[in-house]
Amino acid sequence: MKRLFVATPIITLSAEIQKVSADLRFRLRHDDIVWVKDEVRHLTLRFLGATPPQQVPSIRKALEKACAQNQPFTLTINKIGVFGSHYHPEVIWLGFDHFEPFQKLFEDLEPKLQGLGFEPNYGNFVPHITLGRIKSLHDKRKFWESIESIPSVSQNLNISEIILYQSFLHKDGPEYKVIERTPL
Which structural domains are found in the chain, ordered by start? Predict the structure, then answer.
């Protein structure tokens, strides 16, 4: 089985967002947070999970069909948020107020993947770029003060392809292998 997902890479963040991220990492340096490395940062379209290798050609065709229905587009990162509750925050992320073109791409791909036997993607569709996964916090009040004091951020991302990745989990972080690049 291959652990697969569909995403677009986000390797380069603007100097402004890098500065905000570095400041946040410094402020939260006493907390147990696994920060995402630049080289594996991405914007996930759809997590597929454990997948038999013989399904990869069908997934490629589904990606090609969905991408053929969409043109390249631009998304604007304009916020930093946290998944989880106020009492148990889990993920620090970069997000978007408007992501309609990305949602359309998801909606074009989703029925094709379900037709291949993948379970529907349950829950809200919230495109985001993970900055860090929170393992434990030393001081929750300080954590939330740090999050709430983050200045507004903005960066345009040009999305022109999606990638089928294979994920390998290692104790020092994930490794991603490109299986297929599909242009919009």
Answer: 2-183 (3.90.1140.10)
